[in-house]
Amino acid sequence: MVLPRILLIDDNKIRTQQVQTVVQFLDYPVTTLNATEGQLSLNALDDVMVIVVGNGVDKQATLLKIITDQAPKIPVVLLIDRGTSLQIATPIQKMVSQCHEWPTNYALFSDLLSKFKQAHVQQSPKQHTSASKSIAGKSAVIESTRALIAQVADSEATVLVLGESGTGKEVVAQTLHRLSSRRDKPFVPVNCGAIPGELLESELFGHEKGAFTGALNSRQGRFEMAEGGTLFLDEIGDMPMTMQVKLLRVLQERTFERVGSNKTIECDVRIIAATHRHLDNEIKENRFREDLFYRLNVFPIEMPALRDRAEDIPELILDLVARLQAAKRGSVRFTQTALQMLMQHHWPGNVRELANLIERLTIIKPHGLVDGVDLPEKFQQYTVSTDSVKTIAAQEQEDHDESGTYDLGEFNVFAPERFAANATGAGVITQLPEQGIDLKEYLNDMETDLIRQALAECNGVVAHAAKRLNMRRTTLVEKLRKFDMTRV
């Protein structure tokens, strides 16, 4: 992990040495820069948690303006001589987060840096964790994909995302953008296959008023909209050859002209392209330019088909259901049998097909329990053995045991069939049998039966079942352990 560092800018050599010594003693990495060395670059601000500027540096106002323009979210501390705070001009005060007297009180300075470090850690994206949240799954192939994303995200390299339709190529592009230094700038997608060739040039580069029939006003293109950010060229393999030539020139020269204009516009965008086509074959068939391919294929990332990572389907379902719940578009739960049937499917439409199925089921069985028989007809060809269902249920319980909780959770959509199957009702005895009764056993049976019914009605959610039974959740958890109801 890269530690957040401090950037120190000061012309006063003695003060610079003093600050550097204190900061290093506090175990913070520090970079020093002389204000006369020229303008800051964005690269110099990577991983900076605070910028410390010595009062009285050369062209102080200009320097602070550069800092606030290039890094508005990084706090700036102005070091001032003791008793001179009233002498700081108001415009300068507005461009700094805090004025701090120097020489300083060691404890105060330490607390100040700790505060900025904590704020920096909370705001900074954690690359691999963020990628994991965006791209669900734990299979080896998807872990490899996530590792590639983490490697290239914060570089300026052009990325070519490959994969079948519906595998989540745009999710990869969005993740790359969010984890890059351009995250605060626009992410602009454009589907090159959905826009007619004669309109694509205007869509990408914009046009001037009167450039063609219907051009009543000047209009920015996608390149201008994405300035400073990321332009995602989806389905690049479907782009007409005439447009490929023009795109190649922009990638080489980083300049373009609007349609109907001879004014050259410089652009600063990162290009991420995607296609479901095999571009090697397209090149052989003279449908894609080889030189453009090499420009785009700097860092290829391939999204695997869903059939090649079937073990990720449970986690994908969790993610998809959670998204629907967050959007207040319903919810649904699945038995282990249904889950096993879904994992056997070929999924020609990949994750998009799975997402559509989940959304359809939330409409058909809102907040309900989906069993194998509830799945569409094409899934009925799959058979599920009892052993395989038990294996998944046991693994699910093992995961719960390792996490130290028996709460099935709001997003545990795999409702245990054991609860539904056993919620039959024991029957209430209103008259004492002649042979007598084991009252303790009878009451235990009645209690377990009512617990099973509550869990079945609440689709396995322990917290909701506890409310139905008018008891604390922790009490219900203890009863589940006592009656060994957490095992299949």
Task: Break the fold down into its secondary structure elements and pairings.
Layout: E1 5-9, H1 13-25, E2 30-33, E3 48-54, H2 60-70, E4 76-81, H3 90-94, E5 98-102, H4 106-123, H5 127-134, H6 140-152, E6 159-162, H7 169-178, E7 187-191, H8 197-205, H9 222-225, E8 230-234, H10 241-253, E9 255-257, E10 264-266, E11 270-275, H11 279-284, H12 290-296, E12 299-302, H13 313-326, E13 333-334, H14 336-344, H15 350-364, E14 369-370, H16 386-403, H17 417-422, H18 439-457, H19 462-468, H20 473-482
Parallel strand pairs: 1-2, 1-3, 3-4, 4-5, 6-11, 6-12, 7-8, 8-11, 13-14
Antiparallel strand pairs: 9-10
What labels would you give this structure?
alpha/beta, 488 residues, Helicase, Ruva Protein, domain 3, five-stranded parallel sheet, Rossmann fold, 4 domains
Question: Could you walk me through the main structural features you see in this protein, from its secondary elements to its overall organization?
Answer:
This protein has 488 residues and is α/β, with parallel strands linked by helices. It folds into four domains: 5-121, 3-Layer(aba) Sandwich (Rossmann fold), CATH 3.40.50; 154-208 and 218-303, Rossmann fold (3-Layer(aba) Sandwich); 307-379, Orthogonal Bundle (Helicase, Ruva Protein, domain 3), CATH 1.10.8.60; 439-483, Arc Repressor Mutant, subunit A (Orthogonal Bundle), CATH 1.10.10. Helix content is 44%, strand content 12%. It is built from 20 helices and 14 strands. It has helices at 13-25, 60-70, 90-94, 106-123, 127-134, 140-152, 169-178, 197-205, 222-225, 241-253, 279-284, 290-296, 313-326, 336-344, 350-364, 386-403, 417-422, 439-457, 462-468, 473-482, and strands spanning 5-9, 30-33, 48-54, 76-81, 98-102, 159-162, 187-191, 230-234, 255-257, 264-266, 270-275, 299-302, 333-334, 369-370. The strands form four sheets. The chain has a five-stranded parallel sheet with strand order 2-1-3-4-5. A five-stranded parallel sheet has the order 7-8-11-6-12. β4, α3 (90-94) and β5 form a beta-alpha-beta unit. α5 crosses α6 (140-152) and α13 (313-326) packs across α15 (350-364). The radius of gyration is 31 Å and the shape is flat. The model is unreliable at 125-129, 389-413 and 415-427 (pLDDT under 50).
